[in-house]
Design goal:
Layout: H1 3-18, H2 27-42, H3 50-59, H4 67-91
Helix pairs in contact: 1-2, 1-3, 1-4, 2-3
Length: 93
């Protein structure tokens, strides 16, 4: 599964867990769910895809309303990280 798809799925899951009918996002519920996922990931060191799963777990945000928002946020993050890496490489020369 691509990182973008994983972020969209995790965003949707957090939204289900933490968004309440009265229009409030329950950050405590979201963080409790995230902590549970982290505990499961910590129990699987070295498993295939574990680094991606940790990234997605940290990066996801249940306040995203649409999958496209999740994907674009992920792409912007990757682009930002890429440009930061290029900038630090060019200053070493």
């Amino acid at each position: 599964m691509s990182v973008e798809a994983a972020v969209a799925y995790f965003d949707a899951t957090l939204r289900t867990v933490a968004w309440h009918r009265h229009g409030q996002y329950d950050l405590t519920a979201a963080e409790a769910f995230r902590a549970g996922i982290h505990a499961r990931l910590d129990a699987m060191p070295g498993a295939r895809g574990i680094r991606q799963a940790r990234f997605v777990t940290d990066f996801a945000d249940g306040r995203a309303q649409l999958p496209g928002e999740s994907v674009s946020r992920g792409l912007c993050s990757v682009a930002s990280a890429s440009s930061t890496a290029r900038a630090s490489t060019s200053t070493r020369r």
